[in-house]
Design a protein that fits this description.
heterodimer; A: about 750 residues; alpha+beta; Aldehyde Oxidoreductase, domain 3; Aldehyde Oxidoreductase, domain 4; seven-stranded mixed β-sheet; about 25% helix; B: about 160 residues; DNA polymerase, domain 1; five-stranded mixed β-sheet; 5 strands; about 15% strand; globular; binds FE2/S2 (inorganic) cluster
Chain lengths: ~750, ~160
């Protein structure tokens, strides 16, 4: 069956979600459950001088109070094992957990927090990226050299990891260039901000713990509980009920070990539900602030001949999952361009800010914003139209990119033309409006993932997957693939997901990997069942198994559709009473790569099944106030084949809207000590429906071999990449001045229009 | 600060989706918490606690309110409608049917609040313009969808029921 024959998508979790009957983690209530609360440092950098929880423990109704002294002394995290569950000798950001309590009510839990004696000597906060890497700077982790290091993670002092790309001879090529443009861009940190604040419920039965939690990656959460509490994997079961959005912010494990430890100590189920303030300050998944210096040389024809870059990323206090960030950021500053000579240096810097971690296409919106703004500056410097300049320089099928990778069939050039045409590039607009263009790219990630498929004796079918449904619809799409393999209706299949006790491991909902990896596993598991059904049908119909076709719920002989048997009847005739399939992702070929990463290679030096996009936005700027509004977005994406169009459009619309928020209003503001000043939804402003522009989406569907099922690539992160750059280019075109800070708030636009430096104002 | 021993509880009867629920609650309890923890209807969500997100939207005598910022005792004697009261038995309300069919549901966390706001909007204005829909739903944040399919589904419902 061709992909275009796919039936219309039916959302299996839809009725639950529109009727209010679906259970999210905060909706769980277990008999006897206690309330958990955390004592946060609230100071960003300090040596702990006293931590006394005896008074808190003595309060009636308090069942457990835990500190670092009550859990195994273990440092964890891939890259650099710099993290502990609770603060030990010092605190390094405001949301660091000092103690955790479990009590019979909210009020009593709060009393317990208030009774904890927590004293400290404050240290000067380390919050300036350039000062943090200067010689002699105080260290966020004075003992970093004693921590366990994994992977290619070169570190030194406050530089947590370091990565660089070097191709050709950038210095020499730059000195021979006809025109050289240099820019510095500074991006503020921002947040994933799912509407569901996270929640965790843990319950022990004997030596086994079940943790209900709003994680995007249940297997990572399980591994964290096992590692931090020294438990074997077979005693920890993670179940994620419906997930109220994640956007990367809920990747991995976070607070599951704390709540599991509390429940064990209290001998009662324990439940944690975050307030919105906690959702802002405590998780180790914020989008990192960045300082990006770029210099580009072009020849007399407007071809890019050289690029150098220097990137500093604000890691915050702990490494979370950010070890690959410098390399990813370097890839974005190189960009989807043909550039023969490149040198980019990229460093992830420890500070006393909240830790950075994966948020939807980590490093990409900021990196792309910088490089695409810079691209318009180059075009302006040589007097070329920004669209023409990109036509001349972007990667196309067969070209060798700025990182040495040769591209198979790709559709960036088509994306560029489609988005520009849709937006009416070159048409006259009112004085206060302009179009801006940006291209973007993002990889697809291969990961091991498994799936089971089961046809029960009564013919009903179950697909059991380690995938997670954070809202995108991608898990829901998995049953379309299985249904297609089995010749049944998608509604005949029930999904079991988000349960480490039931499913084979996989990357959950992270890195746009659900369909790409879990999809291939599900297809193969379903195919195993299909093969067994064909065998049974062959016996029944006295035909050759190779000639059996599964369609419309029937097994029939090819060419003779009247000779058939209902599939449900065959299941019962299996000697085992049921039919089982079990599969994993097969190894797929990696693209050919000419390595250009010199150090800090975390697997990003070439991109498998790379996705490309072009966004053209139409912006209106109020020239009195600097308030910018995005009126239209024209998006064109190459994410390979599109299996589920309605869900795919939903991802583009959601990702673009998130991008507009990041472009205009979403920036974390810190006080001098590095505490967040806008940790609430009134102060940290998301886009509302009243702000939402008209979004036109087109897909360039290029079948991509050696990729996801049926030629699909990843999808859900890519739409969050290019929007910020396009918005800056539109604002700059409208006001005749460029904005060098992200987000491009009304204040910053107004200051640029009036040549005022905000620092001086 | 109250402890279990000195809590003052008020006996209150809440009328929710046509059913009377007797509950014993402190005066300070907000309506969303009481609906979720005492009445047992968890369809009403909490995304903040400060009138910022709209996930907790319910109808009070037909008017949309953020139930996180409304005292439960004040709802006594008034008709409360939550997401669980929107469908007619097994028949989904057209808004529920359309938002689902048209792709306006992703994670679903904003959906109950969004649907309650949309219900109130169509009650008072069965033929809203696009701008009127946007104003009616501007207190409901959605991080997933970019709103396009939500907007379309409310517009389609207006056409369907008028
Ligand atoms: S929970 Fe009531 S407005 Fe957010
Ligand atoms: S569907 Fe997830 S917040 Fe709206």
């Amino acid at each position: 069956m061709a992909v275009t024959d796919m039936p219309e998508f039916i959302r299996a979790d839809g009725p639950d979600k529109v009727t209010g009957t679906g259970r999210y983690t905060a909706d769980m209530t277990l008999t006897g459950q206690l309330v958990a609360k955390f004592k946060y440092a609230e100071v960003t950098h300090a040596i702990i001088t006293k931590l006394d929880v005896e008074a808190a423990r003595a309060i009636p109704g308090v069942f457990a109070v835990l500190t670092a002294a009550d859990v195994p002394d273990i440092r964890f995290t891939y890259g650099i094992a710099d993290r502990t569950l609770f603060a030990t000798d010092r605190v390094r950001f405001e949301g660091e957990i000092v103690a955790a309590v479990a009590a019979i009510s909210d009020d009593v839990a709060q009393q317990a927090l208030d009774a904890i004696v927590f004293e400290y000597d404050e240290l000067p906060p380390i919050v300036d990226l350039e000062a943090a890497i200067a010689d002699g700077a105080a260290l966020v982790h004075p003992d970093v050299d004693s921590y366990v290091v994994t992977g290619d993670t070169p570190h030194s002092g406050n530089v947590a990891t370091h990565s660089s790309i070097a191709m050709g001879n950038a210095e020499e090529a730059m000195s021979n260039a006809a025109t050289v443009v240099t820019s510095r861009y500074v991006a503020d940190a921002s947040h994933a901000t799912p509407i569901e604040p996270r929640a965790v419920v843990a319950q022990w039965e004997g030596e086994r713990v079940t943790v209900y939690t709003s994680t995007q990656v249940p297997f990572d959460a399980r591994n964290l509980v096992c590692e931090a509490l020294e438990l074997p994997a077979n005693r920890v079961r993670i179940i994620a009920p419906h997930l109220g959005g994640g956007f990367g912010g809920k990747c991995g494990g976070h607070f599951e070990p704390h709540i599991a430890a509390l429940a064990r100590a209290a001998k009662r189920p324990v439940k944690l539900v975050f307030s919105r303030w906690e959702e802002f300050i405590a998780p180790d998944r914020r989008r990192e602030g960045m300082i990006i210096d770029i210099t580009t040389g072009v020849d007399a024809d407007g071809k890019i001949v050289a690029r150098t870059g220097n990137i500093l990323l604000d890691n915050g206090a702990y490494l979370a999952d950010s070890a690959f960030f410098p390399q990813a950021a370097a890839m974005h500053v190189a960009g989807p361009y043909v550039i023969p000579n490149v040198f980019i240096d990229s460093r992830l810097v420890y500070t006393n800010h909240q830790p950075s971690g994966s948020v939807r296409a980590p490093t990409a919106p900021q990196g792309c914003w910088a490089v695409e703004s810079h691209t318009d500056e180059i075009a302006a410097a040589i007097g070329m139209d920004p669209l023409d300049f990109r036509r001349k320089n972007i990667v196309t099928t067969g070209s060798v990119g700025a990182v040495g990778q040769t591209y198979d069939e790709i559709g960036l050039d088509q994306c560029l033309e489609l988005a520009a045409e849709s937006a009416g590039w070159g048409n006259d607009l009112p004085d206060d409006e302009a179009l801006g263009i940006s291209v973007g790219w993002w990889p697809s990630f291969h990961s091991p993932a498994g799936a089971y498929a089961k046809m029960h004796g009564d013919g009903s079918i179950q697909v059991i997957t380690g995938a997670s449904e954070c809202g995108t619809g991608s898990v829901m799409t998995l049953r379309m693939l299985a249904a297609d393999e089995l010749g049944v209706d998608q509604t005949d299949i029930e999904l079991v997901y988000q349960d480490t006790g039931a499913a084979p491991a996989g990357p959950g909902s992270s890195g746009s990997m659900t369909l790409f990896n879990h999809g291939r596993a599900v297809e193969r598991a379903a195919r195993q069942i299909a093969d067994q059904i064909k065998e049974l049908a062959a016996t029944e119909l006295e035909a050759n198994a190779a000639d059996i076709v599964l369609a419309d719920g029937k097994a029939s002989v090819a060419g003779t559709p009247t000779v058939s048997v209902p599939i449900v009847e065959l299941a019962g005739s299996s000697p085992d009473g049921e039919i089982l399939g079990s599969a994993t992702t097969e190894d797929i070929e990696w693209p050919e790569i000419k390595g250009s990463t010199c150090l800090g290679d975390q697997g990003f030096s070439s991109w498998m099944a790379p996705q490309f996009s072009c966004h053209v936005v139409r912006v209106k700027v109020d020239k009195d106030t600097g308030v910018s509004r995005v009126l239209e977005v024209h998006a064109a994406h190459d994410s390979g084949t599109i299996i589920n169009p309605i869900a795919a459009h939903g991802q583009i619309e959601g990702g673009v809207t998130m991008g507009i928020g990041q472009a205009l209003t979403e920036g974390t503001q810190y006080d001098d000590a590095g505490r967040q000043r806008n940790a609430g939804l009134l102060e940290y402003k998301l886009q509302t429906i009243a702000d939402a522009p008209k979004i036109t989406t087109q897909f360039v569907e290029i079948y991509t071999p050696n990729a996801g099922p049926r030629g699909a690539k990843g999808l859900a992160e890519a739409p969050n990449v290019a929007t910020c750059g396009a918005v800056n280019n539109a604002i700059s075109a409208a006001i005749g001045k460029r904005i060098y800070q992200l987000p491009m708030t009304a204040e910053r636009v107004w200051a640029a229009m009036n040549d005022i430096s905000l620092e001086e104002a | 600060m109250s402890t279990p021993s000195n809590r003052t509880l008020n006996a209150v009867e809440l009328q929710v989706n046509g059913v009377a629920y007797p509950v014993a609650i402190e005066t300070s309890r907000n309506l969303s918490g009481v609906l979720r923890d005492e009445v047992g209807l968890t369809g009403t969500k909490e995304g903040c606690d400060d009138c910022e997100c709209g996930a907790c939207m319910v109808l009070l005598d037909g008017q949309p309110i953020n139930s996180c910022s409304y005292l439960a005792v004040q709802a006594q004697g008034r008709e409360i409608t939550t997401i669980e009261g929107l469908a007619d038995g097994d028949d989904l309300h057209p808004l529920q049917r359309n938002i689902l069919a048209m792709g306006g549901v992703q994670c679903g966390f904003c959906t109950p609040g969004m649907l309650m706001s949309a219900t109130a909007l169509l009650e008072r204005n069965p033929t809203p313009t696009e701008d009127e829909i946007k104003i009616g739903l501007s207190g409901n944040l959605c991080r997933c969808t970019g709103y396009a399919k939500i907007l379309d589904s409310v517009a389609a419902t207006a056409v369907e029921i008028s």
